[in-house]
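Example 3.2
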Amino acid sequence: MSGAAGFSTEALHAALIRLPRLADLPADALEPMPLKGVAHDHVRLQGRRLIARIPRWSQLGLDAWTALDRQAAAFRRAEPSGHTPRFAGLLPPGEGLPLGALVVGEVEGRTPVLPGDMPAIARALAAIHRMAPPDLYEPLPAPPDPVAALLAQVERQAEWFDRAALDARARALVAEELAAARTGDLAPPPETPMPLTAVGVDVHPGNFLIDGHGKAWFTDLEKLQYGHPASDLAHASLYSSTKWDPAVNAELTPADVDAFVAAWAMAVPGDLADEVRPWLKPLRRLTWLRTLSWMARWTVEGATLSPGMPERLRTHMDTHATDILRADRIEQVRRDWH
């Protein structure tokens, strides 16, 4: 099941108390948290420093068990980075909890303020990128050519550009970018090393919290896999990402982006920084196309994908999608690599 699905608080509590460490959890300890994103509900377990993370739908189109298995693996794998919540349990799908849930550690922190917190986000990403690879990548994806895999994802989502209500100029600009990506225009030489590290994928600043020590924590690991770190650096700093979360809602200058990348480079081994540098612009373009095509889909199917969203959040999402699909905005973003 990959469609949006509600859950029963009673079913959630019944599943939680089956976990040995939560057997004594009272029903009134469940505190629903405000909906921030489109894919998960969150419930705080008061007094336990834990959060129940309940999928609303699978953004990856996975069945409930596969999606839960991947997320559980993602939280376990990323925990050694020291910048992600700990994994505390898996609640299987069942009646009243159709997509199951995960239980993860609660991170006490605030929403990032940009550009000031971008170096902290860079260091969190660096900690994820420099983790030693596992002996076995499964169940997380690990495409041997992450750039080709990213382009393939863009190709799958490109149909939404035709279905979204883009004006002629915006459609022509998108077509030009797609053509350039397909021909490898601006890509580094073929012999350029291609690193493969753990990557967060959905690393827009709204998916981070800043704790009382100024440390950034990455909290949404649904899409974590093994890929190219330059894509994370792009996604964290593109206009389409820094304006995504209404609580962040910021625009970075080129100097801000340069400082962010420099902070990341200082926090990873020198050879990794050197290998990533030639890919920064090509992966920035492809990652932007990935987001842009997803937002084109949102303009067509948003109400179906995530029903029941608060009107304020839905209005922001719709306004943001309209903004980043405007021809003038597309032109602005393209200046990063043209």
